[in-house]
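Input record (one chain):
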Amino acid sequence: MTDRRAFLSGLMLAPVALVAPAIAAPMAVDTTAWSAALSAVAATHSAMDAYYNDHVRPLNDAHDNGTGTYEAAAAAEGRFDTYVDVYADAVKALVMMPAPTIADIAVKIEWGLKDWIFDGTSEATRMLELIAADVRRLGGSVTA
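The corresponding structure, as predicted from the sequence alone:
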């Protein structure tokens, strides 16, 4: 019965938290997680570029000049897609986490623009809402 009571008490308090965000304690931002996420973006971007330059470009060039096959170039492009997906996921994870500083908000925007994630989808809208929340939080405003 105690677990049920605790659960129901939590439900009753939830609307209070939604209507009174101004009294909520400031959110602590995990700068270690931010640094790790930023490092992951940089590392996956470097790996993606290196794979493209070392594997995809040479096979595309070989195909273009008649010394390689379309199949080999297409296969390399297919393997490259995995690098792109991992990099895009790292960028999205970074953009969706709270920025520790105002300067870090710019970092989120720059990586998001570089990866074209602000594309008008509902996911992109959510990411922009989180960036707006960062600006309000770090700028001292809590209302939209």
